[in-house]
Amino acid sequence: MSPLRWALCSRSLLRGLRCVSVAAGLCRCSPGTSAASVAGMEELLSRSVPPLPPYETKEKAPPPAELRSAEFVRYYRGLEAGPPRAELLTRLARDFGVDHGRVAEFSAKVLQAREQQRELGALLQAEDRLRYYLNPQYRGLFQHLGRLEGGLRFLVELRGDLVEGLASKAVDGPHVKEMNGVLKNMLSEWFSTGFLNLERVTWQSPCEVLQKISDSEAVHPVRNWVDMKRRVGAYRRCYFFSHCAIPGEPLIVLHVALTSDISSSIQAIVKEVPPLETEDADKITTAIFYSISLTQQGLQGVELGTYLIKRVVKELQKELPQIKAFSTLSPIPGFTKWLVGLLSSQAKELGRNELFTESEWQEISEITGDTTTETLKKILNNNEWVRSEKLVQVLHSPFMRLCAWYLYGEKHRGYALNPVANFHLQNGSVMWRINWMADTSPRGIAASCGMMVNYRYFLEDTASNSAAYLGSKQIKASEQVLSLVSQFQQNSKL
User: Fold this and answer.
1) 289 vs 372: which has the higher pLDDT
2) Residue 52 and residue 133 in contact, taking contact as beta carbons nearer than 8 Å
3) What is the CA radius of gyration of the chain?
4) CA–CA gap between residue 80 and residue 82 (Å, rounded)
């Protein structure tokens, strides 16, 4: 059978299967979704999702009426969060995706043009047709929604539901994952730097903005209004990106401390009592990025943080040209979980742990009263260990080298396993210093045994560091970090 004939047969078969699946889909509704509401959903989708016009008339096809797009927004927002919205999103992804029959047909035509060695123009046109039919039908709906007043905000909300649904398995399957990726890519274009505005937050900013900044702080929660005033006051800067279509709405927020050296403790930055001093520019030589928070779940995976840091660096260089050092003071989420998992797996597989030296384990056992790792795992999980000065002292050295290995040596597809490390290394930073007892809050102890890390940005080297990390997966690290990694390799075994 020729490629073209095979493609046409495939197209007919796929159309038939699609009809069967749509018909069968009337019975495949989420719990709590009635047959009447399913019928209403299908009717709404058939009205709202514009058909993909033929390739020949794609430039002349009239846009769908705004009323239909607005009707979709009203209907979606009228649904309860959870199963009803999950049902609509699933049907949208499954029933209004790519026409696989068309894709098969024009894939065959591209192959045919290559095999027959037709002129370049014919091959390029065949490829353009194929590219056109690779667009899912729901992409047209998203495009029209993005043109509505308030439509971009709605699409961010809708993707937030998609991200949450995929994480909780409320929505699942290849169609939904594909739609999530398509919408993420569209949002990445709409939220590119040319459409973003950098805004600084001060105590004189609107109350609504201050409240949103406070509510969205995901790294070091804001305790009260006094704390918030401190974070936007003297020796502090707070910036956010907003979008020209959603003015005044913080999308991602960056908090900066202006100091005389690279901070090793978050307590000094977010301390309770604000100083009464006014800012003295002569005391400022260093900018510490100590918190970056995405406020919109629907923008997860859209590259905003990298651009925000770069813009803020330029802003600070203009305002305070004497600043010579740019660094983070970053959390290490996942370290405690990784460590407890290692202790458990070694105890199960080996009947012993090989993370500590014999002398270290002897001291730990004497303090915990247990020669197994069970007590240590328990007190790591409930934060009890920090109440013992002796245990804090004994664990200092082994935990520092274990943390260094976790950040530097543990990988996912060749890149740093820790998401914060991966983010800053992609940006071209240097893994500069690991700090003991840098975050003694309950959250800091639970997540990373109180440790934090500085990622330092040497502006003249960020491009080459980023290229080395992304290209050959090389991590640039300081002597302190490399020394701790070496200690791990000598004293610990995974």
Assistant:
1) 289
2) yes
3) 28
4) 6
Q: Taking Cα atoms as reference points, which of 476, 450, 456, 318 lies closest to residue 385? A: 450
Res 420 pLDDT > 90? yes
Non-local (6+) Cβ contacts of 243 within 8 A are 152, 190, 191, 195, 196, 197, 249, 251
Structure tokens at 239: 């910036």
d(CA 217, CA 291): 8
Residue 345 pLDDT greater than 60, yes or no: yes
Cα dihedral: 255, 261, 267, 268 (round 10): -100
Q: Which residues are catalytic?
A: 330, 424
Give the β-pairing of 415-416 and 430-435: unpaired
Task: Report the C-alpha gap between 323 and 237 in whole angstroms.
Answer: 14
pLDDT number for residue 274: 53
Which DSSP helix (H) or strand (E) runs through 196? Answer: strand 196-200
Buried-exposed string 4-30: b where 16+ CB fall within 10 A, e elsewhere: eeebbebbeebeeebeeeeeebeeebb
Q: Name the nearest CA neighbour of 120 among 64, 470, 133, 128.
A: 128
8 A C-beta contact, residue 173 and residue 281 = no
pTM: 0.87
> Are 120 and 167 contacting, i.e. CB atoms less than 8 angstroms apart?
no
Q: Say if residue 17's pLDDT is above 50.
A: no
> Which one, of 141, 151, 184, lies nearest residue 166 by Cα?
184
Instruction: Give which of 123, 253, 266, 269 is closest to 201, Cα–Cα.
Output: 253
pLDDT at 24 over 90: no
Task: Give residue 169's region: left, alpha or beta (phi > 0; psi -120 to 50).
Answer: left
Which runs of E-coded beta strand occur in 75-229?
A: 196-200
Question: Coil, strand or helix: which one is 62?
Answer: coil
Other beta carbons within 10 Å of 396:
13
Among 146, 172, 186, CA closest to 302: 186
Length of the chain: 494
Identify the pLDDT of residue 34.
64
pLDDT in tens, 245-255: 999 999 999 99
pLDDT at 38: 82
Rounded to an integer, what distance in angstroms lies between the CA atom of residue 152 and that of residue 149?
8
CA distance 265 to 329: 8
Average pLDDT on 83-99 reads: 95
Average pLDDT over residues 92-113: 94
pLDDT of residue 67: 87
CA distance 384 to 195: 48
For residue 375, give Cα distances in angstroms to 371, 408, 451: 9, 28, 21
Q: How far apart are the first and last CA of the chain?
A: 56
